[in-house]
Amino acid sequence: MDLILEPWPWYVSGPLIALVMFLLIYFGKTFGMSSNLRTFCSIGGAGKYSDFFRFDWKAQRWNLMVVLGAIIGGFIAVTFLSDGSPIDLDTETVADLQQLGFNGIGDTLLPPEIYDWNAAISIKGLLILLGGGFLVGFGARYAGGCTSGHAITGLSNLQLPSLIAVIGFFLGGLLMTHLLLPIIFGS
Q1: What sign for the dihedral angle of Cα 182, 132, 68, 25?
Q2: 92-105 pLDDT, tens per residue?
Q3: Is the separation of the CB atoms in 141 and 153 below 8 Å?
Q4: What contacts 153, CB < 8 A, 6 or more positions away?
Q5: pLDDT digits (tens, 9 = 90+) for 24-59
Q6: What CA–CA distance (Å, rounded) separates 70 from 146?
Q7: Digit-coded pLDDT (tens) for 134-184
Q8: Do 162 and 143 touch, CB atoms closer than 8 A?
Q9: Which of 81, 127, 148, 156 is the residue whose CA sits 20 to 30 A from 14?
Q10: Higher pLDDT, 102 or 85
Q11: Contact assessment for residue 126 and residue 133, using Cβ atoms and an 8 Å cutoff
């Protein structure tokens, strides 16, 4: 059981990711989670209103199984494979977040200062969640895919647009962490 519960070293997880990517390339498939949003919209009838959603969504059924597997796998991991111990974060990160007003860092994946109902239904909380959701959705669509699609599939296919997108994702994360987060949550 320790083999499953402990983090896998790079020399195990890296080749497994490479094997999955080789199989996807061999079978002519591309992996990405945000493309499933387009598929869900197409299934829901959005093709009646926009040409973007008029495509054969049934050809993407395999990718919908990836989403289902991620949901089931996440549930199994949290419910049966988690010992409830705090997330092991860098002490500097914990100190920086505590300085911004976050308490209990590492106790949960979703900080209550953002995701607790009291915080979420406040004006600031709604603006953060809706604004962040819009920016993530717009960014994924504008970049032609999400971080997983570009960083895993695009880079393994040696696609220059994916390299540019991944650099943009990284720079956006740095900008958010070092400039915007202190402005939003600073006292």
Answers
A1: negative
A2: 988 888 888 888 88
A3: no
A4: 21, 24, 30, 31, 32, 145, 162
A5: 888 888 777 888 888 898 999 998 999 988 988 898
A6: 16
A7: 888 888 888 888 888 888 888 888 889 999 999 998 999 999 989 988 888
A8: no
A9: 81
A10: 102
A11: no
For CA atoms 26, 30, 33, 37, give the dihedral sign: negative
Q: Could you give the CA distance from residue 160 to residue 150 in angstroms, rounded to a whole number?
A: 10
**Which pair of structure tokens corresponds to residue 148?**
């997983």
Nearest to 149 by CA among 28, 22, 36: 36
- Write down the pTM of the prediction: 0.71
CA distance 156 to 161: 12
Name the residue among 55, 62, 26, 24 with its Cα closest to residue 38: 55
Widest Cα–Cα separation across the chain: 53
Q: How far apart are CA 107 and CA 97, in angstroms?
A: 13
Distance CA 53, CA 43 (A): 9
Q: What is the mean pLDDT of the chain?
A: 87
Any idea of the CA torsion for 26, 29, 32, 37, to the nearest 10 degrees?
-170
- Cα–Cα distance for residue pair 172/81, rounded to 1 Å: 33
Q: Which residues contact 24 (CB under 8 A, 6 or more apart)?
A: 30, 31, 153
Q: How far is CA 74 from the centre of its chain?
A: 13
